[in-house]
């Protein structure tokens, strides 16, 4: 089975969105093919995903089993995890007894051959690509949440697909939540009550 290039693995609390506060093992995969688009849009990523090391799935599982404290959730994040993840990886960790969440930019669709019974248990799209790309890749896919990052002055999104929940998240400056962006997102949610506020609470909690 193909190895994965991993920036980091850590056990912590989910800090944002619909699973906020839930313990999970985060597997941050190296690399992101949308980074140039983000740069051109003025979006600065708040995570380091350029460095990392190659790990076999058995090495990843060994780390998880030694550090998960009985937690059953894995979150694949990045960078862009779907740059690397294939059906065989998802099925491997499903068969090992773990539930799996995906945090993706929407750049790629789900891996070919992925089935509902052995696929992702929770899908979050935080769009970093145009809506027509998201529609192409995830139209007809059951998505748990859409989470859009917003700066002050940006309008409420017009999603191309449906989700269980819709979130607005203020863009952060490093480990600090930008006050102007936060107030803007609050105002957008109050004017558009189908949207909920999602703040990166892990930065407030001072956890990874």
> Given the structure, what is the number of helices?
6
Largest sheet: 9 strands, mixed
Uncertain residue ranges: none
Distance between the termini: 29 Å
| SSE order, one letter for each helix or strand | EEHEHEHEEHEEEEHEH
**Structure summary, number of beta strands:** 11
Shape field: globular
What is the radius of gyration computed over CA atoms, rounded to a whole number of angstroms? 17 Å
Estimate the mean pLDDT confidence: 91
Protein traits:
two-stranded antiparallel ribbon, 6 helices, globular, 9-stranded mixed beta sheet, alpha/beta
Report on this model:
- The protein is α/β, with parallel strands linked by helices.
- It is 25% helix and 25% strand.
- The protein has helices at residues 35-40, 57-67, 87-95, 131-138, 179-191, 201-205; strands spanning 4-13, 23-29, 53-55, 73-77, 99-104, 122-125, 145-150, 165-170, 172-173, 176-177, 196-197.
- The model has no long low-confidence stretch (mean pLDDT 91).
Topology record:
Elements: E1 4-13, E2 23-29, H1 35-40, E3 53-55, H2 57-67, E4 73-77, H3 87-95, E5 99-104, E6 122-125, H4 131-138, E7 145-150, E8 165-170, E9 172-173, E10 176-177, H5 179-191, E11 196-197, H6 201-205
Parallel strand pairs: 2-4, 4-5, 5-6, 6-7, 7-8, 8-11
Antiparallel strand pairs: 1-2, 1-3, 9-10
């Amino acid at each position: 089975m193909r190895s994965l290039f991993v920036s980091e693995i850590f056990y912590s609390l989910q800090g944002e969105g619909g699973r906020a506060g839930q313990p999970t093992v985060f597997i941050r995969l190296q690399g992101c093919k949308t980074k140039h688009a983000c740069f051109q849009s003025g979006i600065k990523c708040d995570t380091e995903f350029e460095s990392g090391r190659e790990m076999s799935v058995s090495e990843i599982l060994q780390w998880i089993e030694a550090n998960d404290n009985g937690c059953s959730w894995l979150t694949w994040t990045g960078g862009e995890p779907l740059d690397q993840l294939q059906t065989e990886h998802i099925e491997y960790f499903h068969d090992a007894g773990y539930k799996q969440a995906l945090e993706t930019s929407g750049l790629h669709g789900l891996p070919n051959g992925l089935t509902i019974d052995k696929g992702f248990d929770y899908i979050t799209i935080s769009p970093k690509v145009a809506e027509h790309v998201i529609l192409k890749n995830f139209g007809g896919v059951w998505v748990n949440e859409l989470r859009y990052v917003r700066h002050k002055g940006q309008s409420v999104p017009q999603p191309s697909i449906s989700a269980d929940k819709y979130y607005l998240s203020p863009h952060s400056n490093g480990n600090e939540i930008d006050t102007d962006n936060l107030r803007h997102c609050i105002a957008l949610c109050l004017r558009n009550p189908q949207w909920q506020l999602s703040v990166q609470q892990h930065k407030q909690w001072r956890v990874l």
